[in-house]
UniProtKB/TrEMBL annotation:
It comes from Paenibacillus phyllosphaerae. The keyword Kinase does not apply. Residues 134-233 form the OmpR/PhoB-type domain. This is DNA-binding response OmpR family regulator. Its main location: cytoplasm. One of its GO terms (cellular component) is protein-DNA complex. It is found in: Cytoplasm. GO terms for biological process: regulation of DNA-templated transcription.
């Protein structure tokens, strides 16, 4: 059974989330304080975290940053803060999704299940028992091992999140073609998200920081102003 940590200071919302996860055979614990929530999150006991931003004690942004630095599990922000700058900051700190209150509990569970499935696949494919990947994309100094979810830059492995890897793989498999943020969002995030295309730019920026020698002058993923992004081979 999957274990969910809900860090939410509103008792009604937290219990609602817990009940809906329970209906889908997922066990949820609730913490109402940010500091206590951070301690529980870092315990390693949970498979996914539902995180509010406005909390007593540590705020959601700080929690997200510290969790992402130590754990590779899905983090879903659920918040009444709906300004684009908040969403961009959340994604930039490593959140996997951003759900704005009021929300549909059924949709929240569906998103959580989708992220859990993606992380399970990502972890399984990267596992030490995995056989060597027979399908590798080689683009200049970049090597993308499709099945193993591994990326090497000049023989040095770089660590990408599951979503970052999927963005990079998709673009590299469609070289020299321009994709708008909306197209990438639809292709990569699909039904998991609802129009938060700001996350596309954040993920592109994070990928560049990891694979480009000079992220400000990218050689792989370029920006076509007013149109989108293009992977150059």
């Amino acid at each position: 059974m999957k274990r969910i940590l809900i860090i939410e200071d509103d008792p009604y919302i937290a219990e609602l989330q817990k009940d809906y996860f329970g209906l889908h055979d997922m066990d949820a614990d609730i913490v109402h304080d940010g500091n206590a929530g951070l301690d529980r999150a870092l315990s390693g006991e949970f498979d996914l975290i539902i995180l509010d931003l406005q909390l007593p004690g540590a705020n959601g942004f700080d929690i997200c940053k510290q969790v992402r630095a130590k754990l590779d599990i899905p983090v879903l922000i659920v918040s009444a803060k709906n300004e684009e700058v908040d969403k961009i900051r959340g994604f930039g700190l490593g959140a996997d999704d951003f759900v704005t209150k009021p929300f549909s509990p059924s949709e929240l569970v569906a998103r959580a299940k989708a992220h859990l499935a993606r992380y399970e696949r990502y972890t399984r494919e990267r596992g030490p028992e995995k056989k060597p990947d027979s399908e590798v994309l080689q683009i200049r100094g970049l090597a993308i091992h499709k099945a193993a979810y591994r990326v090497f830059v000049h023989d040095r492995e770089v660590t990408l999140t599951a979503k970052e890897f999927e963005v990079l793989l998709f673009l590299s498999e469609h070289p020299n073609r321009v994709f708008s943020k909306e197209e990438l969002f639809e292709r990569i995030w699909g039904l998991e998200s609802s129009g938060e295309i700001a996350t596309v730019a954040v993920h592109i920026s994070r990928i560049r920081e990891k694979i480009e020698e000079d992220p400000s002058n990218p050689q792989y993923i370029g920006t076509v102003w007013g149109a989108g992004y293009r992977f150059t081979i």
